[in-house]
Amino acid sequence: MTKIQLVTNAIVNQGILPLYYNADEAVTLDILRSLYRAGIRAVEYTSRGENALSNFTKMVELRNAEMPEMLLGIGTIKNLKQAEEYEKAGADFFISPGFVPEVAEFLISKHLLYSPGCMTPTEIIEAENAGVTFVKLFPGNALGTGFMSAIKDVFPNLKFMPTGGVDTTKENIESWFKAGVSAVGMGSKLVSKELMASKDYATIENETKKVLDIIQSIK
Question: Is the pTM of this model over 0.85?
Answer without folding.
Answer: yes
